[in-house]
């Protein structure tokens, strides 16, 4: 192997000639065992060579050119670290190979474990599988970053750094590193990633030594996951009439009418417009004669009946006429541009389709009982024995409740701009 005439530097490394074939290593005359491997294709990488237990051992340090390249001096410092590790019997390359072999042998990389979890997990309270959107959210956590179809870049998934690692080799340090990295994005993403990681490990029966997610770990060494907190941002009360007027002016527009329907009923946006995982509201879900819609597969996996106000019925009728039973009522996925225009005209900001559901709930809270509102929003009773086993609401009672909310929103009931609704 040739030796460079002078000490290797960044500029000299860039100027090293390419071999005619295969590769060649240029050794630094001033740093024994430090060199640059150059291939005929132009790939250059820093290497070290030293004797370990009587044998010459060579290791690649880092790229010298291209994406992820390091400076010559940084490579020298890395050489010192890895050379010291080799002297102490620690070999990073051997460790990585052993980890890959172990992962292949037991077939339980985190990526494989998470995929098995989303397909095999069943909810304890009803034995149902996870919803498709939930599955997609979880799997996205192990995806590597790239560029979306619209050209926008997206980052690695929250657990992508551990995707190829055996779940039996995940350490407490690994968990803390992921949590710290996700905190730089947001507290919510950090918490969510830890909840998913913990669920996957528990499902596979893997106990990480001194895990910062385990209750048995000392408090000072534990990651305390922040409780999920909602941030309701309804349309301000003093702007509600203006918003309704702006949306009504676009009557007949599928996006505008769909948004108005969410506001009048409290439906989730996906239940109305659908998404890549659900179809949304279909013609066959609507009973115009009975004045109701029946949602079959809701977020809490329960059938949900919505009693329609006269205003909601009037909105639906033209979007159903002439359509087949399996057709979508509001045949659009993303009403964003139309909603932005409505918001601008009403002089409100930040109102998304889900914020319209917030607005419905904020208005209804002033007009109906808490148990009626809970049923209107299709929220689970959880441990609420009173609501789940003692308080019943008839369809007539709920229809009256939905009608009261619709009358308030559309101005049939005078709007009190001094109320606390929406604030």
Task: State which percent range the strand residues make up.
Answer: 5-15%
- The rounded distance between the terminal residues' Cα atoms is 75 Å
Examine the coordinates and then state which fold CATH places here, giving the name of the CATH topology of the largest domain. hpI Integrase, Chain A
Q: What structural category do the secondary elements indicate?
A: alpha+beta
| Broad shape | elongated
Q: Give the ordered list of helices and strands.
A: HEEEEHHHHEEHHHHHEEEHHHHHH
Total helices: the number is 16
Strand count, sense and closure of the main sheet?
Answer: 4 strands, antiparallel
Give the assembly state of these chains.
single chain
What gyration radius follows from the Cα positions, in whole Å? 30 Å
Kindly report the name of the CATH homologous superfamily of the largest domain: Intergrase catalytic core
Q: Which regions contain 5 or more consecutive residues with pLDDT less than 50?
A: 414-423
Based on DSSP secondary structure assignment, what is the total number of beta strands? Answer: 9
CATH class of the largest domain: Mainly Alpha
Tell me the CATH architecture of the largest domain.
Answer: Orthogonal Bundle
Q: Helicity range of the residues?
A: 40-55%
User: How are the strands of the biggest sheet laid out side by side?
Assistant: 1-2-3-4
Mean pLDDT: 87
- Domains, number: 3
